[in-house]
Every structure is written in C-alpha cells, then in structure tokens.
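> call design_seq(struct)
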C-alpha cells in the first residue's frame, strides 16, 4: 500500500493515524484471538469474525487507504480503528461475562411482556 499522508482528519479530537494498516492488523488479530475462545456456534463470534475477515481482506487488496475507506464504508480509516478498538473491548468483556452460557436462575415471569 502506498505511503499514507494526511494532514488532519477534520474531526475534532481525532488525530491522524501514522500507520493505519499496521494498527488495524494488530487490532484485528487480537480480536480474532479473543473470538477464538468463544464457542463456534455463538452468533456474536460468527458475525464478528466475518466482519473482521471481510475488512482485513479489503485493506490487503486496496492500493490506497482512501480506496479501503470507500470499500469499507464506515468513514475515515481513523474511525475504523476506533471501531476495531471498541470491538476488541467488547469481545474481551463478552469472554469475561461468558454470555453464551445459560442464565444462573430463571428469568422473572413476564420479563419480556410489553406492555405490562
């Protein structure tokens, strides 16, 4: 990929990433390792792995960062990095919570009934 030079993002408080492809590669690999610890049939794992693999492929195939930004369609590459960071935090939290396990106790009657 060509050298990435951008003076500013135009978004208050958001600095330009010096090496966005490396940063995303690291974040995506960390996230995939966290997801690998979840059950194979867990929907969050399936959907998130699919999204990460799709975005990683786009970044590898794109010749410029601007091209990758357009193909991903989620704003500037710095915003995609923030999304990847947030996804990693969420993946690690879900691992800690073990959200795929059954509830410890039965849900109260009418919990999902609306209006009461």
């Amino acid at each position: 990929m060509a050298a990435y030079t951008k003076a500013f993002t135009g978004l208050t408080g958001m600095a330009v990433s010096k090496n966005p492809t490396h940063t995303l590669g690291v974040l995506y690999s960390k996230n995939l390792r966290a997801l690998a610890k979840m059950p194979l049939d867990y929907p969050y794992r399936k959907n998130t792995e699919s999204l990460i693999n799709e975005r990683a492929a786009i970044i590898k195939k794109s010749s410029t960062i601007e091209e990758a930004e357009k193909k991903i369609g989620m704003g500037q590459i710095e915003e995609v990095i923030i999304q990847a960071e947030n996804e990693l935090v969420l993946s690690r939290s879900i691992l800690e919570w073990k959200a795929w396990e059954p509830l410890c106790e039965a849900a109260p009657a009418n919990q999902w009934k609306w209006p009461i």
